[in-house]
Specification:
Elements lengths: L7 E7 L6 H14 L4 E4 L2 E3 L3 E3 L5 E3 H10 L10 E5 L4 E6 L2 E7 H26 L2 E5 L17 H7 L3 E6 L5 H10 L3 H4 L2 E9 L7 H11 L3 E6 L34 E5 L5 E2 L5 H4 L4 E5 L3 H5 L3 E4 L1 E2 L2 H10 L2 H11 L3 E4 L1 H5 L3 E4 L6 E4 L6 E12 L2 E4 L2 E4 L2 E9 L3 E3 L2 E4 L2 E4 L8 H15 L11 H19 L2 H10 L22
Parallel strand pairs: 1-9, 1-10, 2-9, 3-6, 10-11, 11-12, 13-15, 13-16, 16-18, 18-27, 19-21
Antiparallel strand pairs: 4-5, 6-7, 7-8, 14-17, 19-20, 21-24, 22-23, 25-26, 26-27
Length: 514
Amino acid sequence: MADGDTGGALLVAGTTSDAGKSVVTAGICRWLARRGLKVAPFKAQNMSLNSFVTREGAEIGRAQAMQAAAARVEPSALMNPVLLKPGGDRTSQVVLLGRPVGELSARGYHGGRSERLLGTVTECLAELRRTHDAVICEGAGSPAEINLRRTDIVNMALARAARMPVVVVGDIDRGGVFASFFGTTALLSRADQALVSGYLVNKFRGDVSLLEPGLDMLRRLTGRPTLGVLPHRHGLGIDEEDGLRVSLRGTVREASSAPPHGAEVLRVTVLPVPLMSNFTDIDALAAEPGVVVRFGDRPEELADADLVVVPGTRGTVGALRWLRQRGLAEVLARRAAEGRPVLGICGGFQLLGERVEDDVESRAGVVEGLGLLPVRVRFARAKTLARPSGTALGEPVEGYEIHHGVADVLGGEPFLDGCRVGAVWGTHWHGSLESDAFRRAFLRRVATQAGRAFVPAPDTEFGVLREEQLDRLGDLIEEHADTAALLRLIEDGAPAGLPFVPPGAPAPEEEDSV
C-alpha cells in the first residue's frame, strides 16, 4: 500500500491514558480486516499486568492479543516488542520480544534503556509492514508528555522514525476535549506536529450538531480536521491494560443483563489483590447468564458470595500480607472449612498453598501460605510461558501460563496442573474459563457446593460473544469515523503542509469576545 512492498501504517495517540486508544485501534483493525486487508496491531511499549502468551510462547500485552483477534490474525511478539510489568518496589519487569530480560526502576528505564530499544521497536514495526497491508499502532499515555519526549519510543519518536501519520483520540466524556486536542498539538515540536493529521472524539453523548461549532473552531485553530465523533457505547472495552473492568456485558460491579437459566443467580466475588494481573480471567464468568460478578475486599463481601476468586498477582507474598491485614485470610479459611467454593488462579493459587519460597519476586525467602491446598511453591528465575491444553471435569479445556512460581502439588484431586481439596480449587492456567463446556461443568460443581439452584446456560459461547464485541468496534469506526480519510492517511501518510500551532496561539479574532 504505502511504499512499494511496505504496508501502510497509522499511529493512534491519545490526549490522556484511557482516552480510548485501545478500542479505536481494535475498531480500525476490524474495519480494515472486513475490507479484506491483512492488518496487524502494534504497540511498541506497553505497561500492563494483563498479558497473554502467543503460540510461539512469547508474552505480550493482553490488549494487543485482542487487537490481533480484531484483525483476524495470530498474535505475535512483533506486535508488542516491549512489555513493562510493574512490581511492588517501584520497578518493572522488562519483557523484550516476549521474554523477560530483567527488572528496572522507572528512572533506570528512562535513563537510557528505552532509547536503546527504539531500534528494536522500529525493526519489529518494519517487519510487520513488510508482511501486512496495514499496521495500526497504538500510542501510550499522551504524546505531549514533554518530560518523557527524549526517551519516547511509543508515540512521536516512533511516528517520526516510521514516517507515520498520527490521529489523536480524546475522551469527551471527561470534559475539556477541545483544550486537550489543542494543547496536545501545541506542546509538540514542529517536526512532531507535521505528523498529527487529525482528531477523533470518543465517548460522545448527545446531538452531534451541538458539537460542530467547536469542531469548526478547532480546525481553524489547528488546521486539522476531526475525523469522527464516536458515540458512547456501554461495554465496548476490550481486555484492559489496567482498571477494574471486564470486557463483556458491563463492569464487574454490575449483574449480567441476561436472566438466569436456572432458578437462582450465582454470586461471584473477586478479591482485588495488590498487583492484580490477568483479571480478564473473570470475563467468561461475567458473560454467563445469571452470574453476578463483583470486586470486593471486605469480609462481608466474601461472606455472601457463592464463589470467591483469588486472581493472579505479580506480588504473591505482598498479596498474602494484604489478605492477613484485612482479615480476609481468616474468611477464606472459614469458607474452606465450611465447604464453600474458592478458586485461586496463578498467584492466587500459589498463596492458597502451604508455603511460598520466593527469592526472585519479593526476595522474602520462605513465607507461610494460607494452607488451604497441599502445595508448596518455589520461585524460579526462569519464567514459565506456556499454552497448555487438556481435559478437566470431563471436558476439553485450554489456557495459558505466565509465572515464576513452580508448584509442588503434594495431594488433593488433580485440577489443571493444580489441585482441588473440598471446595477449594487452584490452578496456574489463565483463560481456562473461556472453554465453554469446561466453564459450565465447573459452574455446576460450584453451584452444588454452594447450595444454589443455578444452572449454567447450555448455549453461551464465549468466543462468539467476543467476536460480536469486536464487530461492534468495527461498526463504531465504519459508521461514525471518516473512513475515507483514515484510509488515505494509512495509504499516503500525513498530508504535506500541515500548519505549526505555537503554544498559546490566540483564537481567531472573529471568535474573540469580551
